[in-house]
């Protein structure tokens, strides 16, 4: 029987103690101030090496060069096998032209890549609950591991998207908030580069993609980076397929990995997890071991609600990710409003990670690290032990410090990863 006809995933994986947050949105959980302004993608650390002098040696090219050098030296985790693994893992998003950080480019076009809805065919008009059930089943069929739906909080949409050809940011407007764009009914770019999203696109469908447990345990190596990049290849298939399915129903859809809007707050609003000290989403099913993508649409959908399973209290007690970070990018103290650089929001109360230190380390090491994900006690294979310990954190936070001793994932030698894979 096809996967999409099977019973849907239990959204919390059998974890006890998960509860819906009392009508709280991510903005309320983050205590976003009234004078908050949307973030400009140009200042994301992915793009700062393109235009900022102090980070010009910390980009993807430098990271790749460092990785190749280690492969040439055949260091552990940078073997010929690992290079082949990375090449195969990222083949789909590279070959399909799906740029994970660029809006409305090639594979993640904001316009139909197929026929859309043919002329003369009436669009589908379902009840919101029926539409949500169908979209979640189709997302599962197209490769998502978990799916949630939320109203699109425009505060999490970038104020500007970044264009690496000009090294400039161009504004993103909604048609009902910027004079002159009221008649726009299809998302796209104007002649001057301005991006316009119809005001009717009020929903975000958010997908989680589980990363391999053993692959992530090899961090920080090329084995681990290949594990991560394989998820982007899955995203390139899932997000585009769901978006095109929605277009075939007669609605607009914007597929996105790391572009257009921020992933973590949308995933929180969609009931898929909570924010961790390491600035990653923590899911009750996968912990932080997942990548996020989404589709923004005007298809009316029943929405999910944010959840609470004790992550904030647990992260206050636990500092394992901070202790494991080789460049001390993760804070030991609590959430606050003061960003540590222009790469983070102001006016948002969160754990303030020094993302610039991460990027410098990546370029030097030749990988995208992943140590904080591996070290996180929520990073466990789904099973009785995972459900029991995650449920304890939700139900009895007084035991958090005790259970930390039982819940520390260990490092896996890359050679052992390959031995287990091919035995």
- Give the radius of gyration: 21 Å
Strand numbers in spatial order across the main sheet: 2-7-11-8
Q: N-to-C terminal Cα separation, in Å? A: 29 Å
Number of helices: 16
Q: Quote the beta fraction.
A: 5-15%
Structural class: alpha+beta
Main beta sheet: strand number and arrangement? 4 strands, antiparallel
Order of helices and strands: EHHHHHHEEEEEEHHEHEEEEHHHHHHH
* Total number of strands: 12
**Mean pLDDT across all residues, rounded?**
92
Residue windows where pLDDT falls under 50 for at least 5 positions: 1-7
What percentage of residues falls in helices of 4 or more residues? 25-40%
Shape: globular
Description:
By secondary structure, the protein is α+β, with helices and mostly antiparallel strands. The protein is built from 16 helices and twelve strands. It has helices at residues 26-29, 48-51, 60-72, 80-89, 91-95, 128-141, 213-217, 222-248, 263-269, 311-317, 320-324, 355-365, 371-375, 384-395, 400-404, 414-422, and strands spanning 19-20, 146-151, 160-163, 168-174, 188-189, 195-197, 203-210, 253-256, 274-275, 281-282, 290-297, 307-308. A four-stranded antiparallel β-sheet has the order 2-7-11-8, with helices on both faces. Strand 9 and strand 10 (281-282) form a beta hairpin. The radius of gyration is 21 Å and the shape is globular. It starts with 18 loop residues before the first strand and ends with a helix. The model is unreliable at 1-7 (pLDDT under 50).
